[in-house]
Amino acid sequence: MTDAKGPALTEFDLGAFTPYRIAVAAQRTSEELARQFRARFGISIPEWRVLAHLAHAGASVSVRDIEEHAAMEKSKVSRAASRLEASGHIVKRMNETDRRLVRLELTAAGCALVEDLLPIALAYQQEIEARLADGFAAFEQGLTRLLQEPQA
Asked: Do 114 and 84 contact (CB within 8 A), yes or no?
């Protein structure tokens, strides 16, 4: 980049830009949790999100539903589902009339894995709550508003 930066660019503080800070905080928290999951179970965050979504739903769920609700790209959901299927934690079921539509379902091994992962996830949630202390309730309210308000 040249020295032709305008005043707006030189005055812009990326470290104070809220969308940037939210993205960095989300990445860091995901990485911290991922380290714990990888170390103990060899599970990635996309795999965790697929497993958690299936466990929460309590039934088979379409790949499309997971994409929407877990805010994941189709390719990440598909790769995570393939790894989980290969490890015996989920089964994929093709729609008989449209083979592009795939539903995922936890196996008994997948349910057992979720039961092993959940205490780690909940302990990490408590760690975040402790870090934020008195600000946690306001943080949760703010996140809820950001996640509920329509995106432009």
From this structure: no
Confidence of residue 115 (pLDDT cuts 50, 70, 90): very high
Question: Nearest-CA neighbor of 26 among 79, 63, 81, 70?
Answer: 70
Domain extents in the chain: 41-130
Cα 131 from Cα 121, distance rounded (Å): 15
- In the chain, the percentage of residues whose pLDDT exceeds 90 is 70
Q: Distance (Å, rounded) from C-alpha 19 to C-alpha 129?
A: 21
- The per-residue pLDDT for range 52-82, each reduced to its tens digit, is 999 999 888 999 999 988 889 999 999 999 9
Instruction: Answer yes or no: is pLDDT of 34 > 60.
Output: yes
CB 73 within 8 A of CB 49: no
- Cα dist. 134→24, 126, 145 in Å? 22, 13, 19
**Domain over 41-130 is classified CATH 1.10.3080.10:** no
List, as one string, the DSSP characters of 28-93.
Answer: HHHHHHHHHHHHHH---HHHHHHHHHHHHHTS-EEHHHHHHHTT--HHHHHHHHHHHHHTTSEEEE
